[in-house]
Design a protein that fits this description.
This protein is mostly helical and 319 residues long. Helices cover 68% and strands 0% of the residues. It is built from 14 helices and no strands. The protein is globular and about 45 Å long. It starts with a helix and ends in a 41-residue tail after the last helix.
Length: 319
Amino acid sequence: MSRKAAVVALTALAPISWGSTYFVTTEFLPPDRPLFTGLMRALPAGLLLLALTRKLPSGAWWWKSAVLGALNIGAFFPLLFLAAYRLPGGVAAVVGSVGPLFVVGLAALFLAEKPTTRTLLTAVAAAFGVSLVVLKAGAAFDLVGVLAGLLSSLSMSAGVVFTKRWGRPEGVGALALTGWQLTAGGLVILPIAFLVEGAPPALTGTHLAGYAYLALGNTAISYFLWFRGIERLSASSVTLLGPLSPITAAVIGWVALGQALGPVQVLGMVIAFGATLAGQLAPAKPRAAGAAAGAVPFGSAEKNSQEVSMDLEVSGVRR
């Protein structure tokens, strides 16, 4: 296996893991507490990584970490959940699937990554495939929900692009940078969760096991792999791994929950998976050794849209 294929395979584990969020949320967690769930995913994982790496930001990286944490986690989760509650039948997942197109535009603006016709067509094909997987007949549209879905996708897309543009400080590993972002994002969600949902619910052993999985495998490890992939692959290549999330959610729903999986959904999976593979065909840009603490031009780095890889019909999350 080539080095790039290995990086792609490891990065793909992140959206695949996010595809399991819906199943874990519905089967292991207390109902109707999406913001508390987002908080329990982000903040404990971030604090754990801070404890393991024993590195704090310095200088400009205090505000950069706060911005990245807000874009990738803090704003993304609440907007995603708002879209999930306002939009039925997987419409939010379809709205979120435009993320690759946002990334293409932002990468052209901030990373000098010129969009190609193939990249644009691949992004459109991925969104179309996702729509076949999750969109149900008669789905209704709500303006607030659509705006929330678009803003959540834009937030994550901007997080992908600026994570790549800024790189990371010299001597700081991807694990520490992941911890900074998850902690910052969790602190953004903290007051929102308590204002909207009130005090935490009573938790059982099953709930704690579910939250432990979300915080460790689904968040700490997955986001580490995601941010590591952003460094080593192009922005469009990373974001086009996103369709693996709704594909995973649909397969888990079929296998574990007995949900129907008809010919249209299978066709959507094939199209979305084909777009994912096509998105990895462009050669990776090698990352310059010892990236400086300042902005990292796209041409000197190797680098979703995230996480709306769920069957949002029942309001679970992808990233």
